[in-house]
Amino acid sequence: MSPSKLRVVIAREYLERVRSRWFLFVTIFGPILFGALLFVPPWLTSRSQASADLARIVVLDATGVGLGARVAAELNGGLTGDTSLTQVRAVAPADLAAAETAATREALAKRTRGFLVLDASTLAGQSARYVGGNATAGPDMGRLERTVRDAVVAMRLERAGLDPVASASIASMRLRLDAQRLTDRGLGGSARVSIYLAFTVALLLYMSIMLYGQSVLRGVIEEKQTRVAEVVVASVSPSTLLAGKVLGIGAVGLTQMAIWIGTGIALARVRAPILEHFGVRGAPTQLPEVSLGTGALVLAFFLLGYLFYAALFAAVGSTVSNEHDAQQAQMPITLLLVGTIIFLSPILASPESALAYAFAWFPFSSPIVMPLRMSVVDLPALDIAASLAILLSACYVALWFAGRVYRVGLLMYGKRATVREMLHWVRVAR
Amino acid sequence: MPEFAVEIDRVVKRYVGHVAVRELSLRIPTGTVYGLLGPNGAGKTTTIRMLLDIIAPDEGTIRLLGVPNTTPGITDRTGYLPEERGLYRRMQVRRVLRFLAELHGVPRRVADRRIDEWLERLGLRDAERDWGGAKVDELSRGMQQKVQFIGALLHDPDLVILDEPFSGLDPINAQTLLDIVVQLKHAGKTVLFSTHIMDNAERLCDAVCIIARGEKVLDGAVPEVKARHGGRHVSVELASPRDGCVAEVLGDRTLVRRVTDVNRTMEIELAPEGSSRVLLQRLVLGGADIRRFELVQPSLHRIFLDEVGANGAEEGFGVSE
Which DSSP category does B260 fall into? Predict the structure, then answer.
């Protein structure tokens, strides 16, 4: 294998792709999507919280103790609020059905957004009912539920003899659970963030391996289809061409990921100020703390996983002569990748189960599953090393196999090769 | 420079179920234009691919430019135009050519200069339009073939191998190609091309090898080959349309093996036991009005038909008369 020729092949694969409009589109579109994920949800939430006419409802109070008035006051911003939006109707339990019919009519006529029913079971702390067009709006219902609950708690505290101010403050108490991960090296940061990170990393790995693996497949088919392969292998060996293609496309992937991760971190840093500028108070983004060692390991898993799958995709690509056949021929490989994604959730739920171990060692899934496990539980170094070693050996076998299939398949045209034919090629290739 | 640019020694290539090339040996003197002739499926492309080490022979040895064809770097001195042509469709012409040149070890600056020269020479670049900046996709088929041809020559190879270079070319482009082959020869290069268009082979080749069904049928310098097949062919031109008497003479299978009618001129191949003297005598006695009676050397076309028709007809393109 001549290094200077390998360099020429790598340069062509890399530059032709980086120069293409497709690369430009995906590279720019990625950060836009990422930015949208960072900015749009808080903005939407802030908008839905601002739905001030949540209070434009009818409260049917069948409790007989004035719970409705309390709820109305809370809904409109406490004791000092203007309660004119909310109509509180005290009804006897027996008349509730008739009152509901009337309230339904009003809601249908859009005079109110809906109606809230408070009765004895509400007072008992069991349930309240809401009927309205916005019954599926999560933030609205959350707010209503909290308001009713707070009002009931406050009322019962008062009945138990507590003064109104103290009961109001106890009732509106909010408690947040901040879960932190404990690892052997100490506190490992927020548990929620590390789960997000694990998922993001796994999905990113899956997407990149799929994207660039298939890019290798298409590249191989293009060379076969346009018959340019023969000119090229007349001056470089097929293994050089294959290696150049895999490495060149891998470099494209790294470039793209570097751009994405770079802009992602930058965007996360400036997110809070930008949101504030638009009048939205978002929680500052917690950037997960990733040590250099973990980063290097994730990179290693990505590179090996890419190499492994790229080799398989290349082998498949060289056995077919057109894109249509390629769709079918690549199915088994694609299924292995997709299958891994299906098992991500169970593995995440119990990262030390036998299933998780199996997936983290099996070379078809380890490049995606191992980084996932690594970011949620602390794994012994031996565990990681074993997984890497298996993947590395699998890479070697896959590249060897792909090289031999590729060498013969590259100049074969016509019907797609069967598995038996492929095995024959592996035997006859030099 | 070694005496022979190509030396093939008892090369065999087998595929499942058939032998593509059997015991083929040939030598191509340096600085000559050599034609590898044969019907479709004769093993020409397989032979060429083995020459370039794209596929390996099962038996036998191949030497190019004096060294084994597996020697690293030897491909930098050979140029190849495959039968199935193609380029990266979405790539710019200049970049494709630069890529092919760099693959053969030509530095970028030298490559760029040569690319411009070649594009101008083949009419792909002038004051009005520079096709070098276009994508391969935007070029017509003929232009793409020219670009591919440039790609095979950019690194100034000593040995140029062209597999069916004339297929799909219009007469004007074919002439351009012929001119370039002649120029390559004058520059001391060796050109090997395969074809089944005998006319071009006849005009270009110093020597030929005809193969059929993977086997060599004959080879040698063109005059030699013709001389070997000469003396058996007569060209006869009659002043009047031929009558029954002439037909009777020509129908005598002990005298005449085959007659090819070309308008009023007839190409006659004598039977093994027949002679031109007897033929002339019989025609004159039969009252034929002969305007011209000439002993001729057979064309490569004729020799090809005779030889392949005798040896490889069933697998060739149905040579039957």
Answer: E
